[in-house]
């Protein structure tokens, strides 16, 4: 027979962080909530989480109230589109940093340390290592 103190899942989450945030919100509203996330669950790939998601549990007696709190919290949450928000210009010690895309492209696509140059430098290092290993294997060096 089901007891009012039995733990039942009230919500699932995409990850342990989201599950603990939901549980924290429920605790702040007087509902004891539990998240059982183990190391094995944390190390799984994304696909097994579909089968075994991160669940927030509450006592059966608190289930309806917890569902209402979660629903109202999701309705009250605001999804911001940061592209539409003017955050102003940086002030203080960060004022020299600008988010100008052209400046970024100028710094990282010209000069010595371009991605292509770094790639060829990496390939040269691999080739030198391979040649040195070969020469050592045939006792030349």
Q: What's the CATH H-level homologous superfamily of the largest domain?
A: Hypothetical protein rpa1041
The helix tally amounts to 6
Percent helix, as a range, is 40-55%
Which strand order spans the largest sheet, edge to edge or round the barrel? 1-3-2
Shape: elongated
Which fold does the CATH topology of the largest domain refer to?
A: Alpha-Beta Plaits
Structural class: mainly alpha
Counted up, domains total 2
The description of the largest β-sheet is: 3 strands, antiparallel
State the assembly state of the protein chains.
single chain
Give me the strand/helix succession.
EHEHHEHHH
| Percent of residues in β-strands | 5-15%
CATH architecture of the largest domain: 2-Layer Sandwich
The CATH first-level class of the largest domain comes to Alpha Beta
Contiguous uncertain segments of 5+ residues: none
Give the radius of gyration: 27 Å
Q: What value does the average pLDDT take?
A: 79
Number of strands: 3
Walk me through this protein's architecture.
With 141 residues, this protein is mainly alpha-helical. The chain folds into 2 domains: 7-77, Hypothetical protein rpa1041 (Alpha-Beta Plaits, 2-Layer Sandwich); 105-141. 49% of the residues lie in helices and 11% in strands. It has helices spanning 16-28, 39-42, 46-51, 63-76, 101-109, 115-137; strands at 7-13, 33-35, 54-59. A 3-stranded antiparallel sheet has the order 1-3-2, with helices on one face. It is elongated. The model has no long low-confidence stretch (mean pLDDT 79).
